[in-house]
Amino acid sequence: MIPRIDMQKLVKRDPQTMVDLRRGAEDIGFLILYNTAIDAARIDEVIAAYADFFHRDEAFKQAVNMARTGANRGWGAGGAEQVDPMANPDYKEVYDCGFELPAGDVLTAKNLSVYAPNLWPADMPEFRATIEGYYHQALEVCRTLLRAIAAAIGEDDGYFDDKFSRPMALLRGNFYPARPDWAGEKDFGIAAHTDYGCVTLLATDGVPGLEVKTADGTWRAVETRPGSFIINFGEMLQMWTRGRVTATVHRVRGSGAERISVPMFFNPNYDTNVAPLGSGEEVLAGRHLKKRFDETYLHLKNP
Ligand SMILES: O=C(O)CCC(=O)C(=O)O
Ligand SMILES: [Fe+2]
Question: Which residues lie closer than 8 Å to 103 by C-beta, 6 or more apart?
């Protein structure tokens, strides 16, 4: 069973909630988070904003196609990303936006693609306002959650704080059209993968689809109501915590029903060392993330 965590209790470090958090982070790699500062009506607005964009015609979306850039901001067409080299490219469409460095930041001069400027569709000011506003709300929930995770694994609450001051956090809208007629056994909405970063805060429209690989190798559906979040953990946090936190494999095969999900991939500052704590090694978060982006987005793999 995936633990269900009441965020208000978590903030108070309620002992049973902390036990559940630890089980979710260490054993299963998934949690359900509810009672957060973001309510169900807000999630509905965000999903509706993405739905409005994804239902526009192809030419409209082409104007913000990330394939014409050297980064991953804007629209990614169906087939633009291949998260599992053993499967075909995913049939989902995406819309990605990320963290923009404040003016004058020392990292600006490095022109790092992980901080590339966002692209926004023309004539959709409400889309931009909704998504930008949600981006900041989602960051706050992730920050609060990560403080509790630090406590749960025996570090100071503030251990991660300064490592996420300029987070390479990526907010994505995933659009899964109804599973296409041509789809075969190697075709997925998103094929089996682990997330690349630290914490993923996932909102969905309530349509089922996400499956998690269990310890015995079987796939189990994860469902949640709109308004509660699915949390999972990525490769960087697994490495960084010497494997205490688990990055669990998951996928979406897709069904006859269209589906939208909205993950916030909460990744640290570019120059954070995410090598195993105490190992004396160095693994730059920004390098790991760029490598994983370059492996999976087809326009970055074959520029
Ligand atoms: O759509 C979902 O439920 C999961 C999406 C996902 O795993 C991802 O975007 O990394
Ligand atoms: Fe994922």
Answer: none
Reported ipTM: 0.99
- What are the structural domains of the chain? 4-301 (2.60.120.330)
- The Å distance, Cα 210 to ligand 1 centre, comes to 7
Decide whether any atom of ligand 1 lies within 6 Å of the 195 Cβ.
yes
Output the pTM of the full model: 0.97
Of 50, 212, 28, 24, which is closest to residue 124 (Cα–Cα)?
50
Q: Is the CB of 173 under 6 A from ligand 1?
A: no
Q: What is 61-84 written as a DSSP string? A: HHTTBGGGSSS--EEE-TTSB-S-
Q: Give the distance from CA 236 to its chain's centroid.
A: 13
pLDDT in tens, 114-165: 999 999 999 999 999 999 999 999 999 999 999 999 999 889 999 999 999 9
Of 95, 174, 195, the residue with max ligand 1 atoms within 8 A of its CB, to mutate for a pocket test, comes to 174
Q: Which of 199, 261, 297 to mutate for ligand 1's pocket (most ligand atoms within 8 Å of CB)?
A: 261
**What backbone torsions phi and psi does residue 33 show, to the nearest 5 degrees?**
-120, 125
